[in-house]
C-alpha cells in the first residue's frame, strides 16, 4: 500500500518536467522539503527497508537536488536505553518521546545546496551559513503500514545531549566565531556556542541545525554592538556588585544593632532583678550622715506567760 501524496507534492512532481531545477528551488520552503523527505522515507519502508535499528539511505526525487537523507526505525524503549547514531547525529540514552509511541522512525537529512531555504528566518540577517543545514526528525512508525500521514513526534534528551558533528562539512572561516544555529519551527533562530573547535553542536531536542558566522557586511556593526553589550554587561556587574555590597553592609549593621540592643536589654533586666532582690532583702537607712543597710524585724517580741516573778 503506497503512502498518499500531498497535493503540493503532486504539483511539484508535475511541474518538475517543465521547470528547470534551478528555477524550482525558488518555490521550495523548509516545510515542503521536510514533507518530501518524510514521504520518500516512509515509502522506502514499504519496498526495501524492513529491519529495525538498521540505517537505510533514502532515494529522493529530483525535485530536491543535492539533498540526501537516511532513515532508521527503532523501538522507543531501546532508543531510550541505548541511544542511537544516525549520520552526523548522536542521540544519547535517556530520550523521552511525546506523545508515547511503541516504535518510531528517525529521519536524518542533509539539505546541501537547498540550505538557502532557511535564509527566510526572522533573525538570520547578519549571519551566513558555513555548513549545510542538517535535520533530525522523529515520526510515529505505525503510520508506515496504515497509509496515514505520519505525525511528527517530540523528543527531549534528559541525560545527555543530542550532538551534531559537522566535521568535514563546515567551510573554513578564519577570524570569525562559529556559532550553532537551531532553526525552530516558529521561524526563529536560536544561537549557541559551537564546541570541539567549532565543528559540533549540542541540543536537547530535534530540529534543523547549521554552523553560522557573522556576515562580512554587518561585521563592524555587529562587532560594535557586541562590544557595547559587553561594556554594558560590565557596568551591570559593577552596579550589581556595589548594590550587593551595600545591602550586605546594611544587613550586617542591622544585625549588629539588634544584637547590641538585645544584650543591653538583658543587662538592664538583670540589673533590675538584682536591685529588686537587694531592696527586698535589706533596707537602707540613714545613721547620722551614713547610709547603712538595715534588716527588717522578723522576730516575735518576747512576753511573759504570767506576772509571777521568778524565785531566784
UniProtKB/TrEMBL annotation:
In terms of Pfam families, this protein maps to:
DUF1191
The alphabetized UniProt keywords are: Membrane, Signal, Transmembrane, Transmembrane helix
Transmembrane regions: 237-262
Q: Which residues form the signal peptide?
A: 1-25
A GO CC term assigned to this protein in UniProt: membrane
Q: What is the designated name of this protein?
A: Uncharacterized protein
Upper taxonomic lineage: Eukaryota, Viridiplantae, Streptophyta, Embryophyta, Tracheophyta
